[in-house]
Structures are given as C-alpha cells and as structure tokens.
Design a protein that fits this description.
single chain, alpha+beta, seven-stranded mixed sheet
C-alpha cells in the first residue's frame, strides 16, 4: 500500500468522522428543538410588527415571550424549553387581545388566521388540541348568537304567551345541544387538556346531579350535596389549570359563595381543600398564598382569624417553602399582633391615666357593653364620630359605657376638648400607661377605631363605625335571646 493511498484513506476517514460528528450534532439540535416550543403565527391583514405571548396565572396575566414580524410575514415564538402547560394569550403591539391558544403536549405548531374575524377562519397545523378547542369555540359562538337573538325576541313578547313558550323551548333545546356537543368533545378526547378545561369551565348545576324531587326540596341536603360535589369534574391539583382563567374563578366562587361565611366554617373547608392540592407543590403554593392574602386583606370583621390560622398552620410550620426568612418574620409578627384581639378573645386590659391624674382600668368598668374608642383630639373624622356617638349614647336605652382613649400627647388640649364637647365618658390618655403600649395591644394604626366588648370584657365586634353599632347590637341582642 503506497503512501498516497494511505493519505487518501486517512483523508476519507477524517471526512467520514467529520460527517458523523455533523450528523450527530444536527440530531442533537433537532432533538433539542423538538424538546422546546415553536409557535409559528400568520395573521393576514394585521398591521402589527410585534406580537406578545402571555400566560394566565391565577387571576393575573404575565408576559411570556415576544415575536417580531419576519420577512415572510410570520410571527415565531420559540425556545429550547417547553412552555408550562396552560392557556396562553396572543396580543398585538397595542396590548389588544387577539386570541387564545392551548400549550400542552403539542408545542410545535402553526396558526393561520385573518383580520377582522380572527376566530371564524383560524386554522392549526400539528395541534389537535387547538383544533378541537376552536371547533368548540366556533360551535359555542354560533349557539350564543342564536340565544342572544332569542332573548331579544322574548323580551318583546308577553310573559306566558304561546310564542314566549315556544322561544323558551327553543332556548332549552339549544342549551341541550351545546351541552351534548361539549360532552362529546370530552368523551372523544380524554387525553387532551381541552377536555379537562371544558369539564371545569362551568359550575355544576343541581339538576345535573340526578337527585329526587324530595331531595331537591331539602335545602340543607342540597347545600351539603352541592358543596361536597362542587369539585367533582375538576382536579384542583392539576397545575395546568393554574394557567387558565378557570382555577382562580372557581376558587373565589367556592370560598365566597359556596362556603358559609363564618371563620370556623371557612377554616375547616380551607384545610380540607388545601389537603387536596398538597400533592402538587405549585398548586399548593398558589392556593396557600392566595387564601392567606385574601383573608389578610379582607374587610369582613372576624376574618383576620382565618389569616392567623393560615400563618400558624402553613407558614410557621415551614410548609410555605417559597417564603424567605424576612417575609416569614413579618407575617408571623402580623399574626401575633392580631391573635389577642380576635373576635371572642378577652380584650387586653389597659390601665391609663385619667383626667384627674389617677389611673383607670378597662377591667374595672362594669356594663352590659363597653365601647372602647381610640381617637385623636385634632382629627376631624374622630370629632365627627364622637359627635355621633354622643348623640346615640343620649338616646339609646342599652346599658353601655364608653372607655375613650385619646392618643394625643397634649394633655391640656385633651382636657379642654372633653369639657367643651361635654363628653360624659371614662376618659383616659393613651400616652400615660401602666400597661403595655395600646398600639400593640389593640393593633391601632388609624383613628378613630372602635372595639365593642361584652360584660365579660370579651371582644364581640371591632373596627365599627358609630352608625354600625346600633344595628350590630340589635342583631347581637336578638341572637343572644334566641340562644338563651
């Protein structure tokens, strides 16, 4: 074998190895691109040069990606990673929403549509998920148009007339057709996320449960049954549903409208529900965060008890894995500030200086009810509430005392105000105290603030306005008499 032949063979071996390396590299690139997402969108007659891809998350939307119009008239969103499964929004450069798409298992597909009616002619290539989704949307839109027309026609007819009955029958028939079509989509596509989405879109209806007439007439039974079966067709632990408008809406509906609005009932149902989503860290995180925030910021009296429960059970125990040390400390401090002034708790005692220079104790006051008023002498709103409280005090027959805590340091102005307004109450100054700072004891952040105590010094209401005291006490008295 001569040297030339050897050199040629070496050369071909090098070329062969190079080609193999290129092929392997290309295969890796192809495999990598297939593991990521690529969404190619064409919108005929669109004037946008930029298109935005956004995702739902709870009740918010967040920008996911941006695509620019290329020379072929396409907008291409792509990356070497997959999109988290869910529903995504396509929006124009002026933040105008165009349409929605589903990202699930199929994440390399093309979309073609045209303005002005983006929905009617929309087509998908390599995405059965979105094809099925938009087939349903088109069918639903057509049904809704007919229902809207029938509703307009019905409004012009006399109630109970034959024509009105015929329209009502038509409406019922259309709704039945729509429900049947939706159920067919679900049955024929059990592996598609669109089926999960369609099952969870609507809240259940009592008539769909197949209950007897006797059961339907029992309001206690129907309430319990509906509550217990509200989530039957919806798996709240499915993290894909977080990235749709559906999960948050159902969460709000369940805890705002389905569950009895009392702290004990809500706490019990919250814990049961969170146990259902505990298997999915992402859903667990969102649900715990949302419910904590919801009840921390609630204006409903007594719901701060739910916030304290959330902190104690899910944050202080280390289960809120996403929370940093600084945030955790703030939340725990907030819960501690509230736990001693929850509805039903013993009101913290205050021993404060009175107008004579002595000290008056809250716990030494005896009456059926004690109104603890925190106010600032120079505050216009405080003066207005004090005037209203004085007027109510003079006319009301209920046995109550007012323990008025002034937050000002100017003792002369404080005493002058009491004398000029002729306020016949127990007056103390919050800046001269034997007991701990009233700000911390009662979480006083603004004035005026009112707490209402019973004869055992238990907190029965708080942060009420004066005009809310009378109706509250009337209801409280009536409830107490019923229970006696």
């Amino acid at each position: 074998m001569n040297d030339n032949y050897k050199r040629v063979m070496v050369y071909f071996r090098v070329i062969a190895l190079t080609l193999i390396a290129i092929i392997v590299a290309n295969e890796k690139i192809t495999a990598q691109s297939k593991s990521g997402f690529r969404i190619d969108i064409t919108i005929k007659d669109a004037t946008d040069s930029v298109l935005y891809l956004a995702n739902y998350y709870g009740d918010k939307t967040y920008l996911t990606d941006t695509a620019y119009l290329d020379k072929k008239g396409h907008f291409v969103f792509e990356a070497d990673t997959l999109l988290p499964a869910g529903v995504y929004i396509l929006a124009g450069q002026h933040n105008n929403k165009y349409f929605e798409i589903i990202a699930n298992k199929e994440q390399q597909f093309k979309v073609q549509t045209a303005l002005p009616d983006l929905y009617s002619g929309i087509q998908f290539k390599n995405s059965k998920e979105n094809t099925v989704f938009y087939d349903f949307i088109t069918y639903n839109v057509n049904i809704q148009k007919t229902l809207h027309y029938l509703a307009d026609s019905l409004a012009k007819l006399e109630k109970g007339s034959l024509s009105a009955q015929q329209i009502n029958d038509s409406v019922q028939a259309l709704r039945t057709r729509l429900n049947k079509y939706k159920q067919n989509v679900i049955d024929e596509n059990p592996d598609l996320f669109v089926s999960v989405l369609l099952k969870g879109m609507d809240d259940p209806r009592m008539e769909d449960f197949g209950l007897t007439q006797k059961q339907l007439q029992d309001s206690v039974f129907t309430y319990q049954y509906y509550k217990n079966h509200y989530w039957d067709d919806f798996n709240p632990a499915d993290a894909r549903l977080l990235r749709t408008p559906v999960y948050h809406r159902k969460l709000e509906t369940y805890f705002n409208k389905i569950i009895y609005q009392h702290p004990d009932s809500l706490i019990r149902e919250i814990d049961k529900f969170i146990a259902r989503v505990d298997t999915n860290p992402e859903t667990f995180k969102y649900t715990v965060w949302f419910l904590t925030y919801k009840f921390e910021t609630s204006n409903v009296m007594g719901f701060d008890e739910i916030f304290v429960h959330m902190i104690d059970k899910y944050y202080a125990t280390g289960r809120a894995f996403w929370t940093g040390k600084s945030t955790l400390k703030t939340l725990e401090e907030r819960a501690d500030a509230l736990r001693n002034i929850l509805i039903g708790a013993d009101a913290p005692n205050m021993i404060l200086m009175d107008t004579s220079g002595g000290f008056a104790s809250l716990y030494r006051q005896d009456a059926n009810y004690i109104i603890v008023l925190f106010y600032e002498e120079g505050c216009a709103h405080c003066r207005k509430e004090i005037k209203a409280l004085k007027a109510w005090d003079q006319e009301d027959s209920l046995d109550f005392k007012v323990f008025a805590v002034c937050t000002d340091t100017n003792l002369v102005a404080w005493k002058k105000f009491i004398k000029s307004e002729q306020l016949p109450w127990i007056h103390v100054n919050g800046t001269r105290s034997v007991t701990p700072d009233y700000h911390h004891l009662y979480d006083i952040r603004v004035t005026p603030t009112i707490f209402l105590l019973d004869n055992r010094k238990k907190i029965i209401a708080k942060r009420l306005k004066v005009d809310q005291l009378k109706p509250f006490l009337e209801h409280y008295e009536m409830t107490r008499k019923r229970s006696d």
